[in-house]
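User: two proteins, same treatment. go.

Assistant:
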Amino acid sequence: MYNNSERRKFDPAKFNSSKSASKSANSPDWPFRLNFYDKSPWYEVSLEDFERYALDRLRVLAEIESSFARNRSWEELKSVTTRQSKDHLPLNSSSASTVDTQAERRNDHLGHFVLRLAFCRSEDLRRRFVKAETALFRVRYESDDTKERELFLQSRDFKWTEVNSAEKLQYAKELNGLGIQQPEEKVPTTERLYKVRWTQVPDLVNKRRVLLKDGWAYVPSKEQLSIVLRAFEANLENALDLTARSIMRMDGDTRLTELLNHMSRGFVAGVASEYSGPITGDEIRADMVDDLAKRHFPLCMRNLHECLMRDRHLKHFGRLQYGLFLKVLGLSIDEAIAFWRKSFSNLTDDKFNKEYKYNIRHSFGLEGKRANYPAKSCQQILLTDKPGPSDCHGCPYRHFAPDNLQTSLLATYSSQGLTSTDLAEVMRTVKEGHYHVACTRVFEITHASAGVKKGDGIGEGESVTHPNQYAAKSIEIEKAQQGDAMVE
């Protein structure tokens, strides 16, 4: 990354004044799709918008980070990010006539600055935020309208100088080594070259893709993006440092600090999106649960089910996590009562009705304040209600000891194609703290026979972010296979 002196080269306050002064009073607030986010929000926003647009952006950034953890190629990452952006963070070019591009850019602008507040709080969060944001900027840069992108580049001072014909001829032999050839002797190449200080493009220097002369790097136009990305990184790093020093002023506003802490914890967990509800379309009966668990449940729910079958009991947080999961999967209130009564076979009817039946009905919104509680997401399971030594709830990828996790994975999924050779990759992602990536990889391995390939995730490259998402997709894949078999 840049040192402090290099970051100051890209201080937005030091941009060429003649370029910034050209903006007229009637110019749009966001003239370009690309944005370095120099100017903080100057407009009033509701708390609802404050949260909504930050979470929309967080979903996209979380999937980018997941792509890095899964070692996706740039083209794969670009494809996944484009799909996620279309769903959660649309941003059209100025030529789009059927959408309000200014509203899109305002939402994008707001979401970025809210997440700055959330992720400026530690060096690790800042590093991950800069990496994900830079990748998002690059995706947008490469897909931007050519003319609009050129206007954006002209609007900023990137501290480069376009190389003139005399210098091109002077260094023609050296440039030829970079694959930049003159059309004929004493005729300079028509390809654009940019001269910058070598410290602005250390990655290109390291890869020997530039010509170095007296501390200057001669950068071919095809490598221009590297200059822009380094400038974006330096600009954002500097801004995050300033935000971190100013964040203490907000500590008294509990409305915001609680929300920002929630967002930053979600990013640490690598999870952002939420599961909206069941997609199987079928009601689950009590007598189906055991078979479904063995074929379709993620490890967290499979572990809860095995504990319940073994001990004929689950502690409170285990019942809550598993019960809500089954409810959202399609278990009705009557079937839920039947399932839990059968599972707690060592209890009398009177004890079950007095101590457990009420809580089951409560989780369905039929008792108490009558709230229809959703199932817990991966983020909630990872970050709340940490299990104790004798508990069965939580996320096995995070809460199991490494040896126990490997044993459990093989015991649970070896019949579905998981082998000991697969464990190294899964355990590597666990060690790096990408628990949802490990779960996603297990899903891919155990559904490989159905045509799921590495990188597919639970569909279109998306990572697992909810246990119900995992189970519902697994059931959907099985139904599709059965349908194909009937056609044949």
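Protein 2:
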Amino acid sequence: MNFLFPWTSGRKTEVRHPPTSAVVTIQDYATRRISLRELVEEKCPSLHAKFHPAWWLPNGHLQTLYCVLGDFSQKDKVVYKRTMLRLKDGGTLGLDFTPIDDSNLRPDAPIVVVLHGLTGGSYESYVRAILSPVCLPPSEGGLGYRAVVVNFRGCAGVPITSPQFYSAGHTDDFRQAIFYISTLFPNAPLLGVGFSLGANVLTRYVAEEGQLCRLRSACILGCPWNLTANNQRLDSSYIGQVYSKGMGQNLINLLKSHLDSLSQTPDHDVTKAAVAAVALNKPTIKEFDNTFTRVGGGSSPPWPFASAADYYEYASSHKVLGDVRIPFLAINAADDPVVQEVPMDAKGNEWVIMALTSHGGHLGWFEADESWGQVRRWIKRPVLEWFHATAEVLQWEKPRYPDIQEVDGYLTEVGRETLGCMVTDKEQIIRGTEGQAGIMAGL
């Protein structure tokens, strides 16, 4: 088909390795010491192959729009069981676990821990496209792992129970979720994967934790990296502003759904910022962030910020890549209309591998399926190969982490006693294809 539609002929993915790659121990046909670069070249062949976009989705705009407007209700059906975590500051997270019946899985089976995009959740098609094969039994072609999606405060039906939202720079909520997951499955390797805004959060978390990161590896998809530069690129063109205003309106709609909860603290600065934000008319992301996120996107310190520019300077993840100390694979698309600045040099970090596909848009990566007019996501192949390589081939010596203990009903880590979480409910069944009313999916 590509000879009829030459514009869909994919180029080989640009995979950028550091000058010196970290040396790791693997176990396959023998125990070997090889570089992280060699591990990826041997065990992730899909990453080095060409990606051919579907001929009717030949560019980043169409790939991105299909991610938002496509019908994925019959694809990659995933059912979750939700655990509600109450945090020490009064906030709530929703952790969606799958499969709901894991009685046939080993306690130490790998767990994929997911952070979703800007206003998304566990229902997102890009999340399910990965988790469906991740949790499928090996006899059916899957990996046979567990997975859990950490839904941010206010997303995917999670209530707002304190005057605070989420943002690209606030990592403590994810940190507290990891306290719970690692306590629930103390011997299971945790594999992180983040999408878009969630990728930024995951990158910052991994960098902040350094050698004591509780994740064995991280996979970063469609990360916005330099928030200042990428917002400027969006605002500099008409089509860029269309994307920016679409995402800004999604944030407004999400915030509106929680105004009643926030109104319980009418004199709080976050509530006042929320009231001002929902009065905005079709704001860009920067206008929304300047009105609300700089005030309500995280805890103090460092929130609040004086401006969106200050928040972007703090929250951008490109500048912390040098602090990553676990195997770290980041994949972006060169034609992504939302993320146009990608730090391919990765600060020369020996643990970081950067990959840039020629096509794919923002979280799309759609290629033609065998059925006429149908698509599938190419990205799941290199991601699953990465999971398998870092969970089952890579040999890993578990660091001596700080102890997690229960204090006054909260799980908390020694040395971080201001953080903690407790379970408030864990029986709700979530149908993964059911989105959130008023919120465009795919972002």
